[in-house]
Design brief:
Blueprint lengths: L1 H5 L1 H17 L1 E3 L6 H9 L1 H10 L2 E6 L4 E6 L5 E4 L1 H18 L8 E4 H11 L9 H13 L3 E3 L10 E4 L12 H13 L11 E6 L4
Antiparallel strand pairs: 1-3, 2-3, 4-8, 5-7, 6-7
Helix pairs in contact: 2-3, 5-6, 5-8
């Protein structure tokens, strides 16, 4: 820590990376504006663990997926999602897993909004049959904040708009591999089908610094 304090440039890099973790929960290596922060945290992982431990957080570095996650060790500070938000997040996970199996490790996972609509409509949710434009804009804004998705095209209400899904979506739940997550997502999505779970708020599995 003293070395960082004595070097203004390194101190600034530390502050930038720490604030980004606090504000967004995830750092994604393949996300261009995260890459330098990701590498810096990876390089000084012990320092970041020491710092965040004082705040009640842990720093989980998942090198296989290129994601660093900020984890609240006390189990508090979780982002609460309503039913439709939870379904949307599960659909993002499901599409990521399906697409990832078809791509090389160097390829980004890109989906069309139409694919999200198709997955959602198949569930036939009684309370909300279709995703409207206002909800879509809100969902994308929310999950972009936590570095789970990014827009490639501007208007997310169009069916051919492309979204990039980051591997941070996998760290939303503990997992032993893609197949385990896939089965878990299918099971949880099925529970939302008409006649399934009631509409209620639930905690997201991502850690969040709630404003």
């Amino acid at each position: 820590m003293d070395t960082i304090k004595e070097n203004p440039v390194q101190k600034q890099k530390f502050q930038a990376a720490a604030n980004k973790l606090l504000n967004h929960c995830f750092l994604v290596k393949r996300k261009e504006d995260n890459r330098k922060n990701y590498i810096f945290v990876q390089q000084y992982r012990e320092l970041f663990n020491e710092y965040f431990d004082l705040l009640g957080y842990g720093v989980d570095i998942n090198e296989s997926n290129g994601v660093i996650a900020l984890v609240n060790t006390s189990g508090t500070g979780r982002l609460r999602l309503n039913k439709v938000q939870s379904i949307f997040l599960l659909i993002l996970r499901l599409l990521y897993i399906e697409k990832r199996k078809e791509l090389s490790l160097n390829d980004d996972v890109v989906v069309l909004m139409d694919e999200i609509h198709q997955k959602y409509n198949m569930l036939q949710i009684d309370a909300k049959k279709h995703l409207d434009k206002t909800m879509l804009r809100g969902f994308i804004t929310l999950f972009r904040r936590y570095h789970i998705v990014d827009k490639i095209d501007t208007d997310v209400t169009l069916s051919d708009t492309r979204l990039r899904i980051y591997p941070s979506v996998l760290l939303a739940v503990p997992n032993d591999g893609l197949n385990t997550v896939y089965d878990s997502v299918i099971e949880r999505l099925n529970s939302y089908v008409s006649g399934g779970e009631q509409d209620h708020d639930e905690e997201a599995d991502e850690e969040a610094d709630e404003d």
